[in-house]
Design a protein that fits this description.
It contains 14 helices and 14 strands. By secondary structure, the chain is α/β, with parallel strands linked by helices. Helix 7 links the parallel strand 10 and strand 11. The longest helix has 24 residues. The chain binds NADP nicotinamide-adenine-dinucleotide phosphate and magnesium ion. NADP nicotinamide-adenine-dinucleotide phosphate (NAP) binds next to helix 10.
Length: 402
């Protein structure tokens, strides 16, 4: 079979542990046999991040700015335990945080809904997309451990020397302190990309935050969304019969649970991080969630929403076969290939991405699934291991492409 050619490379970011194993298997079994894969490769595995003082992460993000499409494997965000395990020079920041700060965009996460896989919330018949702002807030915070009594103040010095100063707390003992920020421009980009995405998907848009508590901080988000909606998007939304509204996050959580799904739910950085895990788990499995970071200047970075599946990796290292679900990582690849095809006018590449997704869904629907999915099916099929699952997808893909 003639392999599909690619004009422009994709930025390929390798990662850690079990997902690094999945990454290689997916390429070897399902992509390289069919596509003359053209990538610019960056090894974001923890050892290489440590070796390069994390410069490799910055270089990868800059490459995405240049080439417009990237695909990323899950990576370890180091903590104390990882410092010891990997003998790290420094507790490097989350690679996703670094990349998001450079690209400044919105992460859209959508569950992969498949007939036969039952949601834990029966009323959810349509996927819920979480739109997560991915700049600033807690992911670019400044923190102090306070180990003696003293006064904590918030100080801002303007360019002309004008100073704003307010006491945060008079510590009578030890404690902890945190400062975070966001920018008008980033909040505006966030709101704009959510409105644009809602229009392109023809779905309702909800935005929720906590402006009753953080009147200025979350208040700015709420105001920015509303102003942009009223001045630029209202007419276009009404023409499509879709709606936008703001509601407090507590109210939104309650309403989402009672809904049929089908909306785009815009959330601040931390809220989106937490809620997307809840949504994906409720729809079935963390491994059945697509995730794409869209920047205001049209860069697309695809990844899985889950982590490096450490528990499975340790079993893999002991020589055991694991039934780790590769679907989210696989859909990161198909998303990137389809987008590359779309941007380059390469229809064969876009069609290949779609065929690979269909082969995957058909395999699941036929009851050939990994352990996490078997639990959600009725009757419960015998789970296969990762290799068995990938081989079944490949057989279907070969038939479809023949
Ligand atoms: P995780 O890797 O998402 O795994 C949590 C659990 O969810 C797994 O132990 C497994 O449950 C289940 N799971 C997740 N993905 C699965 C898959 N593909 N197939 C089957 N089951 C799956 O989260 P974590 O254990 O909290 O974090 C591990 C590492 O990942 C950490 O070092 C963290 O820093 C990193 N992380 C990276 C990203 C990212 O790069 N985007 C995101 C989150 C976390 P069972 O063990 O019960 O089967
Ligand atoms: Mg998370």
């Amino acid at each position: 079979m003639l392999k599909i050619k690619m004009q422009t490379p994709i930025v390929e970011m390798d990662g850690d542990e079990m997902t690094r194993i999945l990454w290689a298997k997916i390429k070897q079994e399902l992509i390289v046999p069919f596509v003359e894969l053209n990538t610019e490769y960056y090894d974001l595995g923890l050892e290489n991040r440590d070796r390069t003082d994390d410069q490799v992460t910055v270089q990868a993000a800059e490459a995405i700015k240049r080439l417009k499409v990237g695909v990323k494997c899950a990576t370890i965000t180091p903590n104390d335990q990882r410092m010891e395990e990997y003998h790290l020079k420094k507790m490097w920041r989350s690679p996703n945080g670094t990349i998001r700060a450079i690209l400044d965009g919105t992460v859209f996460r959508t569950p992969i809904v498949c007939p036969g896989i039952h949601s834990y919330i029966p009323s959810w018949t349509q996927p819920i997309t979480v739109a997560r702002h991915s700049y600033g807030d807690l992911y670019k915070d400044t923190e102090f451990r306070i180990d003696e009594p003293g006064k904590a103040e918030l100080v801002f010095t303007g360019v002309d020397g004008e100073i704003l100063r307010q006491t945060i707390y008079d510590f009578e003992g030890t404690g902890v302190l945190q400062g975070c920020f966001n920018k008008d421009s980033s909040i505006r980009n966030f709101a704009r990309s959510c409105f644009e995405y809602a229009l392109s998907e023809k779905k309702d848009l909800w935005f929720s935050a906590k402006d009753t508590i953080m009147k200025k901080y979350d208040g700015l988000f709420k105001k920015t969304f509303q102003e942009l909606y009223d001045t630029e998007y209202k007419a276009r939304f009404e023409a499509l019969g879709i709606t936008y509204f703001y509601t407090l996050i507590d109210d939104a959580v309650a309403r989402v649970v009672r809904s049929h799904g089908g909306m785009i739910w815009a959330l601040k950085n931390y809220d989106g991080d937490v809620m997307s895990d809840m949504i994906s788990s409720a729809f079935g499995s963390l491994a059945m969630m697509t995730s794409v970071l869209v920047s205001a200047d049209g860069c697309f970075e695809y990844e899985a929403a889950h982590g490096t599946v450490t528990r499975h990796y340790y079993r893999h290292l002991k020589g055991e076969k694991t039934s780790t679900n590769p679907v989210a990582t696989l859909f990161a690849w198909t998303g990137a290939l389809k987008k590359r095809g779309e941007l380059d006018g390469n229809e064969a590449l876009t069609a290949f991405g779609a065929a690979l997704e269909k082969a995957t869904m058909d395999t699941i629907q036929a009851g050939v699934v990994t352990g996490d999915l078997a639990l959600l099916m009725d009757p419960k099929p015998q789970a296969v291991d990762t290799d068995g699952f990938l081989a079944a997808i490949r057989a279907r893909l070969e038939k479809a492409l023949a």
